[in-house]
Design a protein that fits this description.
Order of helices and strands: HEEEEEE
Strand content: 35-45%
Oligomer: single chain
Number of helices: 1
Largest sheet: 3 strands, antiparallel
Strand order of the largest sheet: 1-2-5
Distance between the termini: 91 Å
């Protein structure tokens, strides 16, 4: 109610246009802005999921069953045989094989053998005999792999 003698403004006052007052309740979102926000949320969620999957596979690859081996020494037994002392370190329940190769003085491969291991222990020491086609001068461990 206005005081006696005061004059009421005629017509709409400033800021009292149709709808809510400017800046009082925040601004309204357009349809494009709402869609952009949804896309950002969906993209963020998918990005986090992808990062989790890549992390899982990376961890599994790095922490997978580890098998390593080493040729401790070797002895040339004859012109057709060589014995290699092989040491394998692995997880106790891992199974697999190691590949050994012997070479002649010329560098030619004269023998190759896969040594399988199924023992439930974390360390294996074994002397492996490789048959050769001629006299060997070296024995090399090519690698060990788990099944």
């Amino acid at each position: 109610m206005a005081a006696v003698g005061s004059k009421l403004p005629e017509g709409p006052s400033e800021g009292s246009s149709k709808g809510l007052p400017e800046g009082r309740y925040g601004r309204t979102r357009t349809a494009d802005e709402a869609a952009d926000r949804k896309l950002k949320i969906v993209g963020s969620v998918l990005g986090v999921l992808l990062l989790g999957v890549v992390g899982w596979f990376g961890y599994d690859y790095i922490d997978g069953t580890k098998v390593s081996g080493e040729v401790i020494k070797f002895d040339v037994v004859s012109a057709t045989a060589v014995e290699a002392h092989l040491e394998v370190r692995k997880d106790a329940d891992a199974r697999g094989y190691c590949t050994l190769r012997s070479q002649a003085e010329s560098g030619e491969e004269v023998g190759r053998k896969d040594f399988r291991f199924d023992q439930r222990t974390d360390r294996i020491d074994q002397v492996v005999t490789l048959r050769t086609t001629s006299k060997a001068t070296s024995v090399e461990l090519l690698g060990c792999h788990s099944d």
